[in-house]
Amino acid sequence: MNEVVNKIYDLFPCTRERVLADFNNYCDHHLSLYAKKRNFDLGNPHENVSKLSPYLRRRLVSENDVLRIALKKHSPSSLEKFIQEIFWRTYWKGWLEMRPDVYEDYEIDNDGSHLPSKTGIKCFDHWTEELIETGYLHNHARMWYASIWIFTLRKSWVSGANFFRDYLIDWCPASNTLGWRWVAGLQTRGKIYVAKADNIKLFTNGKFSPDGQLDESPIFDDALWKDHERSPHISYVKPNFSTLENIGLVINKNDLSFNRYLSEDNINFKGCIFHDPEYQPTKSVLVKKFETGLIEQLCLELPDYYFCKSKESLISWARSEKLKYLIFPFETVGNKYFATSDVINELRSHNIETIFHMRDWDKYAFPFASKGFFPFKKNISDLLVRNSLI
Ligand SMILES: Cc1cc2nc3c(=O)[nH]c(=O)nc-3n(C[C@H](O)[C@H](O)[C@H](O)COP(=O)(O)OP(=O)(O)OC[C@H]3O[C@@H](n4cnc5c(N)ncnc54)[C@H](O)[C@@H]3O)c2cc1C
Fold it and tell me: What average pLDDT does this structure show over 70-86?
């Protein structure tokens, strides 16, 4: 296992520079074929997709960074599918932001993590191994996998979502929870995603063909359906940073390039890199290793930043720097760490105000995620304009 864990950086490097270099290379050699080839899961190294998700999820690179590079090399119309996929994460995040109780219910139903044992379904067993060994699965494999988990193996979608949560190096509360719900028919009532042997054979180029092994005509259990109230809208007002002084900035795994983003606004701040290695203890060794690698690299690149691992040391640092404001990356549903903790009150008792700052990317897009992806995507061109990408 150690050997496997050590290979993670070959598959998923930890420096922003290398990620952007790899993406440039991807744009030159593969991106023009994305729409045609993206659904084929041809196994590692998955050259027909970008493998950007571990970085976009933590914003080591942002959606703006990625699309700026891609649109320099390709026209917006030729990138329509890729751009839409980039917005799928945004859409899921916005959708969940308006329905936090969907995530609360998922957490309440939490029936632990279930490491699947061998099933005899070759493709499924292969994907289990691939996920454990690499931390990654192709999108189509995630769809097939979730469908087989729920409808053939008859396990709960929650336990499957938990397995992904612990082993995916790109785990994203919104994309994962809603991805599993979508397959289970809980996003659009009863519209389930059924994995079919023919489809798997076609899109794995014949590598797998689980004929007769899958339940290809499952019935949706309507008792699982629950209506969720949508909160009316997400309101977020950008602070006027020019009127603030003694600002501290916290970079954490919710946004690893937050300093770059804020430097566009010419804000002077003291920086801190925060990483609590004890948080989310059920994560696999591989995921923990990857996250540690990202943080270590960032510490090397930002030697003037204070590094801390606990809320107590964050408070001491903020006090010793005589900060009046502490800015954190906005914590979306499923990513709340500071926003729901006592740290906020404790900082306030020392006259330090906290600000959870939402990037313009999310602020512009989230309000359109109130219904399905179809109405959401009608706004994509406008969103590209608002983000100065076209
Ligand atoms: C059951 C299930 C669980 C999933 N869990 C996660 C998860 O925990 N974390 C996660 O990041 N994605 C998740 N996804 C979405 C998707 O599978 C991955 O984002 C994608 O496979 C990442 O690979 P890539 O970067 O090579 O994608 P590319 O095809 O190169 O796409 C580029 C980017 O677009 C976004 N994107 C593409 N497809 C989707 C999608 N279907 N949903 C949301 N964003 C998308 C991602 O940011 C991705 O990096 C899940 C999908 C399913 C069906």
Answer: 98
User: Cα separation of 332 and 251, whole Å?
Assistant: 15
Residue located nearest, by CA, to atom 2 of ligand 1: 179
**DSSP for 284-321?**
-HHHHHHHHHHHHHHHHH-TTSEEESSHHHHHHHHHHT
Element (H, E) at 354: strand 353-357
Q: Of 267, 276, 222, 265, nearest to 247 (Cα)? A: 267
Of 66, 175, 176, 361, the one to substitute when testing ligand 1's pocket (max ligand atoms within 8 A of C-beta) is 175
* Span from the CA of 258 to the centroid of ligand 1 (angstroms): 22
In this structure, what token pair is assigned to residue 187?
A: 């996003």
Whether 135 maps to a domain, the answer reads yes
Whether residue 352 is found in the same domain as residue 378: no
pLDDT for residue 71 is more than 60: yes
The answer to whether residue 232 is domain-embedded is no
- State the distance from the centre of ligand 1 to the C-alpha of 206, rounded, in angstroms: 23
Supply the range of the domain harboring residue 301. Answer: 241-357
Q: Is the pTM of this model over 0.85?
A: yes
Shortest-distance atom of ligand 1 to CA 138: 21
What tens digit of pLDDT does each residue of 128-150 get?
Answer: 999 999 999 999 999 999 999 99
Angle at 320 between CA 318 and CA 326, to 5 degrees: 15
CA of 282 to the centre of ligand 1 (A): 21
